[in-house]
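User: quick one
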Amino acid sequence: MSLSMYQASIPVLIRNLNNLSAILKKAEANAVTRKIEPEVFINSRLAPDMYPLSKQIQIATDVSKGGAARLAGVEVPSFPDTEKTFAELQARIAKVIEFLNAFKAPQIDGSEEKKISLKVGGQELNFSGQAYLFGFVLPNIYFHTTATYTILRHNGVDLGKNDYLGAV
Amino acid sequence: MSLSMYQASIPVLIRNLNNLSAILKKAEANAVTRKIEPEVFINSRLAPDMYPLSKQIQIATDVSKGGAARLAGVEVPSFPDTEKTFAELQARIAKVIEFLNAFKAPQIDGSEEKKISLKVGGQELNFSGQAYLFGFVLPNIYFHTTATYTILRHNGVDLGKNDYLGAV
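Assistant: Done. Structure below.
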């Protein structure tokens, strides 16, 4: 079957969020084992002017739901950034996976040339659908998932590349 | 134009390597300004059992050249992992960009169902071309580019998301 915009987006985004959820589960279990308050991991960051783990999850999920919604031309659901616990972060990921699962291929397929505009940090960005998916959505979801991974590895959580890639 | 395996791979890989090169240039300039020996950045890692920056670049380039070569069914060029300076790391990136630039769309297009096998850490992995690109190549190049970015940010190098994403 020929590659399509749906195949290059929805299953890819869902898989990454499932991996992110599994990484967070390991982090939570590690905190319990080492008797570390969960907030220590959740508020941890790699530099004073980088986002903490909670914000990495919020952005990874935002880019995922925004990516699917804009490619399909439906409204982007808005979630308040209020998560402070592993359970709340997991609930946000689950909610976005549920949102993504509802898309059908014909909603996304053929969106290669679709005009997509969004504001990021006050700057208006304009893309074709394909440039948006490959130049913004995919690099961003992997960026924030890897940032989550490196924050946790830096804090001694036992993770490996297979946790990030998921089952091959 | 319909999305194709070529469009989802070669230009995406090249763009990421150009961004990685630009990030390294900023890191090198930062080392000069702060009078830090370049090897400090090049050998820096976020955890004792994570790879240092040099290895992150070596893997990002390996996955890029391996990805293109396997999708096209040509031999994967092998480079010794001997880079110890920014100039040598930049040369490796440039060599892989040159390799990628030589691919023409018909070499990669239609590789969705192509059987691809590779050994990673002694484990044999088997993919279809599409699963290899979206479940291995793309997540890996972004992982190692983001790891490079977070190592440098953790060491105080002034980088922002736009350096990672490149010009939109």
